[in-house]
Amino acid sequence: xxxxxDISFDDFDERNSPRDKTTGFDLIIERxxxxxxxxxxxISFGLGQFLLSTRSASAKNSHLNFTALEDTKMNNSFAxxxxxxxxxxxxxxxxxxxxxxVVKWGDSxxxxxSNFDETNPLTAEMQRQSFGDNNDGMSLFTHEGRLLLVxxxxxxxxxxxxxxxxxxxxxTEDDLQKNMAAHGVSICEIDFIDGAWRLISDxxxxxxxxxxxxxxxxxxxxxxxLLKTRDDPAGLSVLGTFNNCGNGVTPWGTYLSCEENFNGxxxxxxPDFDVTPEFARYGIGVKGWGYDWxxxxxxxxxxxxxxxxxxxxxxxxxxxxxxxxxxxxxxALGRFKHENAEVVVAENGHVVVYMGDDERGxxxxxxxxxxxxxxxxxxxxxxNKGVLYVAKFYDDLRGAWLPLxxxxxxxxxxxxxxHTRLAASKVGAxxxxxxxxxxxxxxxxxxxxxxxxxxxxxxxxxxxxxxQTVGGPNPRAKNVYGQILKWQPDKGDHTASGFQWSxxxxxxxxxxxxxxxxxxxxxxxxxxxxxxxxxxxxxKGRLWIQTDGNYTDSGDFEGMGNNQMLVGDTQTGEIRxxxxxxxxxxxxxxxxxxxxxxxxxxxxxxxxxxxxxYPLMGEHLPRSAVVAVRREDGQPFx
Length: 638
Ligand code: FEO
Ligand code: CA
Ligand code: CA
Ligand code: CA
Description:
By secondary structure, this protein is an alpha+beta fold. It is built from ten helices and 28 strands.
């Protein structure tokens, strides 16, 4: 398997980690039952408001004349004309707004390192001192009057990364080291100077965290046998973080970086290596994604170092303001394909972290700290000591957080933190349609999660054998468009064990379909999208929705154009398209300047199939970038 093949992380796992087989007859019966539930039973539970309704021709055609969103929070200062779906190789924003790149893959962070040059690729040493590739989740921190932008660098598309190298493969040791250095996290100081955001070269806070950076293992799994390796017999320290997807921010000013598809970096030199059920559940197997890091680091060879893979798949805490402070993998938050980590302090002071596990049929989690957050008091144990819960959804729109403890799972606490997926299966959690980002409303106890899509819904079980039944918050078989889940914790308390749920939106294509694939009522030809992924509320309570979907603009996806960003009102259900990304990109990562006059948005992997030259025009190598979106009049809008 080669990363140059046009195949997603998920499809790769699908191909290499076959699920348990179910007979065709079983599937037909299961699907038939689920269909009846969907079309009949569910409506009687009161879900009619988000199921497809018969829509009139005028509703279909009124898409370009949106009035301002009706929520009183969405005042007229934020009225904008919806952007039309398009396939342009640029960032399209509404009239009256401008978008320009702030920092791109390969921009050097230090004056002694020459900048990105298309004709003269960076060396590994240069990449270690330059902005990483494929930026994803990000946050902006204010420190001593400086602005520190902290950005995940999720992965690399090696064909682009090696400057259109046809094989998409590393050819030298320096190539491999450079590749490891382009992953991780980039921290760079930025400033708004003479009307533009600029990277401050040589800032004492500029630094790179890569797949080789030393960090500590913290929490209940630290020192466990499953985390011990030849290089680290104590199981307490690990080199690096990679495939850093979404992010989070703690109230004490640290950054959380979430390790997602870590499995693809591991492989076995022994083709007969006996893959354990635990490895199989995480998609770790003999074949890797073709990054070939095992060629210079034995630890990526599971037959030589079988515990190394257990040291990835965590939430990593970084203090951007203190480069000397240890970076910590917080095992208490569980090990899975972490999407983001949305942190909120509950009214009773406990720290709650909501997290999705982005894989077909995996789960939605929350962590609740044992201690409470008190400003000025030590926070060192708040992400070490607490209880991890997994979500169970019922068809009556109720839900429960099931604790993952030795009592409920029969597993020791450290193993719950390492083999979290197995623990969650034991308590009967609800298999979900790939939970991506979770976002918590700034003023009210309301949470949303993007369920991006799931072509296996109603088709086969997840890798642990848990059924992927059609129903509840995952109401469509072979779900190609995705949906956005919303829930309210009981009594407004994020630590409560119960919640009420609904679906904010079912994505779909009302131009192509008139059945459940048309989506929910407020989806129309002017705002349709697929594969919601990034999700974030702004300070006014507007929900920003970023997509990582099919951009072919054909078939089921005709009329949707490139990946995009929309803004929604979770009370009225209104959704409007705010931005369209360049060709073949994903729009992911969002944060605001302190004055709310700049919205920073991530453009990831433009031209992943060779069809973009963003941010330049003409025959140039495409580069992932953080883009600043501002109003032309400079007024705040977030
Ligand atoms: Fe890195 Fe699930 O997205
Ligand atoms: Ca994502
Ligand atoms: Ca995604
Ligand atoms: Ca991505």
